[in-house]
Every structure is written in C-alpha cells, then in structure tokens.
Fold this sequence. Notes:
Layout: H1 2-14, H2 20-30, E1 34-35, H3 36-43, H4 47-59, E2 63-68, E3 77-82, H5 86-113
Helix pairs in contact: 1-2
Amino acid sequence: MEKATAKKDLESLLSSVFDEKTARALVALRDGARRYKELEKILGLPQPDVSKLMKKLKELGWIATREVPKEGRGRPEKEAKLAKSFREILLEGLEKKRREVEEWKRKLEELERIPWQSIN
C-alpha cells in the first residue's frame, strides 16, 4: 500500500510540472519498459490516446519505443521505456516550467503598467 501511495504522491507532484497524463506515464515508465497495452490499463486511456502520448514523449526524446513480437500469432506489440534518466526528464520539465512562469510574470508586469484609468 505504501508503494501505491508513494506513486500517487509522485504523480501529484509531477502534475505541477507536466500535464497529468504525462506525469502518470513517466511514473509508470520509471519502473522499466512497458507495453502499450499495459500503459492503457495503468493510465486508463484508450489505445489512440496512449499512442499519441507516447509519440509526444518520443519527440521530446524522453522515451524510446520498439516492437516486441507477440506470443503466438498477430502483430507485434509496441513497448516504451525511458530514453533518459527520470532525473534528466524532470530537470527538463522544470526548466520549461520556469520559462513559462517567467513569461507569465512578464505579462502580469505589462498588465500592471497599463494606465487603467484611461481605458473605459
């Protein structure tokens, strides 16, 4: 039970840096490679949404994917794993969030400088 609580706490903290789906996926992949089907269950998302999320994470260079032969017949399954350390990904996310915060600060400062009395 403690491990599940720790994962939820980590997901919650990461959601302040990443969107919720990304945070949950990163926590799941932190433990090792996962097949997309497994991620669908863990994330509670349909296959197309998992594929889109993995594509985004791959484009960021955060994950690597590969096809894994299916037992028996059928198409191979896709599998994802972290391509960088969890810490590196977190630091990249934090830096992006810092830039966003600085941009918001700049916009707020611009709003404060507007002479509101002259605007009706």
